[in-house]
Structure formats: C-alpha cells, structure tokens
Amino acid sequence: MDSRAKKATLQTVADEVGVSRTTVSNAYGRPDQLNKALRERIFEAARRLGYPGPDAAARSLRRGRAGAIGLVFTETLSYAFADPYSVGFLRGVAEVAEESGTGLLLIPMPPGTGGSETAVRDAVVDGFCLYCVPVGHPAKELIRARGLPLVTTDESDDPGIPYVGIDERASARLAGEHIARLGHRRVAVMVDHVSGPGMSGPASVEEQLATDCSDLRGRLTGYRDALEEVGVDWRSVRVVAAGRNSRSAAAAASAHFLDVADRPTAVLAIGDVLALGVLDACEQRGLAVGRDISVAGFDDVPEAERARLTTVRQPMGEKGRIAGRLILQPPEEGKTPHIELPTELVVRATTGPVPH
Amino acid sequence: MDSRAKKATLQTVADEVGVSRTTVSNAYGRPDQLNKALRERIFEAARRLGYPGPDAAARSLRRGRAGAIGLVFTETLSYAFADPYSVGFLRGVAEVAEESGTGLLLIPMPPGTGGSETAVRDAVVDGFCLYCVPVGHPAKELIRARGLPLVTTDESDDPGIPYVGIDERASARLAGEHIARLGHRRVAVMVDHVSGPGMSGPASVEEQLATDCSDLRGRLTGYRDALEEVGVDWRSVRVVAAGRNSRSAAAAASAHFLDVADRPTAVLAIGDVLALGVLDACEQRGLAVGRDISVAGFDDVPEAERARLTTVRQPMGEKGRIAGRLILQPPEEGKTPHIELPTELVVRATTGPVPH
DNA sequence: TTGAAAGCGATACCAC
DNA sequence: GTGGTATCGCTTTCAA
Fold first, then answer.
1. Antiparallel, parallel or unpaired: β A201-202 and A238-241
2. What are the chain A neighbours of B124 within 8 Å (beta carbons)?
3. Tens digit of pLDDT for each residue in A88-126?
4. In A192-337, where do the E strands start and end?
5. What is the pTM assigned to this prediction?
6. Model confidence over B235-249: pLDDT tens digits?
C-alpha cells in the first residue's frame, strides 16, 4: 500500500487511474456518466490514496449550493433546546429539511455577541431562518446583506422579510378573555424578561413597552385588551419577569405575587414553561390550582396536557415546516409572505371561577 | 443609486473604491490591517453595489476551516429533539461550540437512507460527532473517509474512533442490583426497539442480542448480570419493545406485562422517557408505583426528578461538552481516547420492596 | 464516454 | 499599508 500522500486530491486520483479529473468527479457526483467498472476502479484508487472524496467547501463553491439551512438564535443554543416550544419548532424545520437531504446549521448569537458576526458570515448555507431575533438586532442587517432567502418567525418587524408566526395579540387576548369571563379582576402576568435578559422581578408599564421582542409586546397587549375591556386598570396588573424562560425561574419569581397580601386570583403566563413554573410554586404553597387560583399558559407544549394546563395552542411544528419551505423554495422576488397561523384556546383544569 | 449588478464580488468592490482585492478582503477579515476611513469607504461601496460580503464557501475553501461541527443522527432530527436525553447532550456540544463561535450542523440520517449520503459528503464542517450511530452503519465509513476529526458517543465499536460515553453494562447493573436487593424476582424490561425500529411487543433473547446498538445491548446485559446473580432466569424476564422511544409508545406497550396474570413486580426501562410511559400506564390502571409495582429508568432526565423516578444518572451535558472539545481540539494522531464518564444510581420514590 | 480549459470567489505570501 | 501572484479543489460547458 502506498504511503498516503499528505494531500490527495481529485487530480491525484485521476492521475493514478489514468483518467481526467472530470471522470473522477463524475464518479462521485454523477454515477450514470461512466461505466460501473471504471467507477469502482476510481473508488479503489481513492481508497488506496486516502482521497477523502470531493471537498465539501470546494464543491459548494463551485455548485453554488450549500445543502444546509441556517437557523439563527439570539439566545444560547442550550437555552433554545431547553424549551419544548423551540424544540417543536425545530422539529418542524428539520422535517422539511430532511425531505430534501438538507442539513440544519444552528447559529448561536447570544446577547453579548460580536464574535458571532463571524458565525453568520462564515455560515455555508442556502438560506437563513431567524428564530426569535428581535427587532433591530445587528445580525439582521448582516444576514439580510448576504442576500440569501430569509424568513423570520415570531418577530415581525421588517416589512421586507418573509414572516411566519401567529397573531400574538389576538391569541393572547383569547386567554385574557377566558380569565376575564371567569370573573377574575386581580390578575398577575408572568413573562420571561422585559428589558434585557437576566432581570427578574416586577416590571413597570414603561419597562414592558421597552422590550424589543415584538411577540412579547403582542401578548402583553392582548392580555391588556381583554382585561381593560372588563374594566381592569392595567397598572393594577402585576407583571413579573422570571429572568429566564425556565420553569424553576418562574417558580421562584412567583413569590412576587404569591406571597403578598392581595394575591391575584389568576395568573397569565406568556409561555407554558413559565406557567408550569407557576404551577409548581402554587403546589409548594398548597394552593389548589383551578380553585384557589387560576393559571393559564401559552403555546400548548406537550407537558401542558399532562399538567392539565389551560393554554393557547399554536402550531409550532407547522410554523417550522412553513419556515423551512419558505427557505428551500423562496417565493418570487418582490413577494414578501406574511403568514399568520391559527391559534386556539385550550381550556383544561388550571382555570376556574374566582374563589369567594 | 447604481442598479446593483447581478453579481457583485470582491473585485467589483475593489475596482469601485480603487484599491486591490487584498484590501477589500482585509476590510472584512482583518480590520486592523487598514485604516478606519478606508474600511468605511469600502463598506459603503459594498452596500451601494449590493456586495453580500465574502462568500462563505469560497472563504471556507481557501482558509481550510468551516466553522461548524457536524452532528450525525441515525434517527430523524425530529426524533432526536424529542428526547430530553438527546437535548441534554446537544446542549453540551452547543456550549463548547458557542465558545468558539462555531456552528452546529445537524445531519439527519434516517434508516431508509441513501440520499443522505449526500448530506454527509456535502457537509462543510471541521469534524463530525456521531450520535447513536450503530455499529456498521454505512455512514460511518463515509464519514471516516473524509478524514476529519471524529468522535462517537454511546456506540463504542470501532477501535479507531475516539469515543465518549459511559459503561453501559455496569451502569445498568446498578439499577438491576437495586431492584434485586429490594427482593424483586419477577421483572420486566422495557426497551425502545430491538431489531429495527417500529417493531413493538415482547422480544426473544435472540432478538435482544440481534440489535446493532451496543448501548442497548450493554444495558440489557447489565440488567441480566444483576438478575442472574440472584438466581433469576433471564428467559423468564419479559423484554418488551415500545417500538419508538416515546412516552406514549411505552405506555401502550406496557400492556404486554401489566395486563397479564403473572404481572411483574418490577419494571426496568432502558431510558427515562420509556420509564415515564410505564408510570403513565400504571397510573391508568390504578397501580401505586413504589408499592404495588416498582419502576426504574435510565438517564435521569429533568422530568425524572419531578416524577420521583428511580433511575441511573449519566452526565449527558458533560458528555456533549467533551465530545465537542474532542472535535475542536483533536487529540494527537495515533491516540484514540476512549472516555467513560461516571454514572450513579438515584433512588427516588418509584421503587420499593416487593409487595406481599 | 472522456478530456481540456475556464472559472467559482476568496485569501496568503511577499515584495514594494 | 498596498497590490500582484499563486493557489484552494472542484464542476461544467463544449468538443472530440
């Protein structure tokens, strides 16, 4: 066996077999362009020479196709994986990607970013999907500049970027109206964060509006619409930030409204993960959820059903699939789809009438 | 504003500004190599010309670095995302990737593969991590041929490939011994699948050995070790396949041992997700888990704690981090690390002594 | 079928 | 700081 050359290339193999580069290239990329025996001979030589097969970057450069979709997150990836809602969305994108033999390139873009500019620029992809990237995030301009197919989810700001999501405001209103109809007037709201991640505790109305996440703003506004309609002063609604979108953080932050004199009779959480945390906190305090206090979530993640959580269902998987397709088969130039998927209130056991 | 040329390239920009390509290249990749004013002028021209920035594929080709780790799954991605254990592992890999501004390229490789050969070959990555890719999977040779840094998890066959995982057999034995010590002799085992996915129901000893997943085999052997040590005939142990690694599938398949005359007093599940399903099934039937019947899992996923599930904890996050590092900083040639992480039996409330 | 030539778009090295 | 020059490794006409 030859000592494998430091660098085997298409040319090397071609020389070895005594054919041209084209033929070797065809052996890999177009099996039907040459007879089987020759193809085998080529592969055999490749093996002998330690030729690793066509270089992916070179091939991608030459063909102008990457075979991957870029998924940009503003949070750390570990964070994104932690929420069943995200996971549901990812599964959707993955499904359509798989169908076309396309990979998914996850690009982390945590807050204290800067170096991650590189990650976006160096991403060898055929298009980008922005997942909860807030308005005005620096990455957005960078990505857009790359001129690849692009779709945003949940964060619907830039009119020039295709969008798929839900009507956040109207959907949240569904939950708010449900609570209002049950007679609740003393209400608390649990959010993950308002101004910048990490900050936890009660948030003033100004802080609530200051957030750059349009989905969060939409949901808050939806709750507000419903509550104000029945005469609730929004300023009386305690909006509490958990600091992170996690069950335990929500459980901890629940103290801000659970351990006070004028405890609310209902809690609206802007996500199921947070709602589950509130449930935990209630349980700890021996509160009978659905009787002593009502809790509603948002998303309808798998765990929600098990917990009998009242929530607003949004089709996360479908959202992902549509986003994926929008990238793989971009719409004609000039058309900028803005797709809003239907949502639905799912009433389970965690909400009930106001206790006397 | 100029009508942006159909194709703007580094050269175009260089010509426009009146500098060389090098300078433009530096403007993007090495800001310190030219003065700020010029750099701005270049960017400005780029914007005007609609130049999308250095082409990722070209750059990757030239620099010989991809800026991404390839993660290969044998199951569909959607499947991988669904299991909290996988998610924990992914988070680990993601963590170290993030630290170095590296992306994660998810490469699906479902059973009925073929087209996905392409996905591996075209993956522009600096290394691969094989996640639960069984022995002898065709992808393995293909990936290995690419000559990039490579690491396997959980499936430890090929001696030439770096590995990180746990001692499956010894770890499973921990659970088995715990059950044996509690006096259980009539035991059932729940697995996801034995020979090929989708098949559910009881599996013969031959079928159990036929699986190509070394981790599964290891765990079964561990249970067997423990049980045979106290005189249990392994053939009397009902091994049932759920067909898929899902909670609901496990709940359904539990009927195979729950709804029979000689119901086992203990159930060992080779994963927590399955164990949770068994728990669901027991609850449905009004069985008091921990008293009427004992259930133990494996992995210690977050839900396990909430369910008070007795299980074997393995450090999934750590596993992922180590795998990631192994790819980013590959060990010296010739050294093939085989890392086994510690595990630990976590006794909670779902196991108890044999009922009289 | 096969081969020769022409890029794909960018970066590294080295003098200037 | 700057600008030539030489690749990086492959695919793709187009003719033979």
1. antiparallel
2. 56-57, 60, 66, 68, 124
3. 999 899 889 888 888 999 988 877 655 567 888 899 999
4. 201-202, 238-241, 266-269, 294-296, 311-313
5. 0.89
6. 999 999 999 888 999
